[in-house]
Amino acid sequence: MLRAVHSFLILELYSDGKSELVFDTDAKLTLGTGTVGLYSADTSRFEVTFDLQALETSIGDRSVFAYFGAAAGTPSVTITNKTLGNLTVKK
Question: Which end of the chain is more exposed for a tag (fewer CB within 10 A), N or C?
Answer without folding.
Answer: N
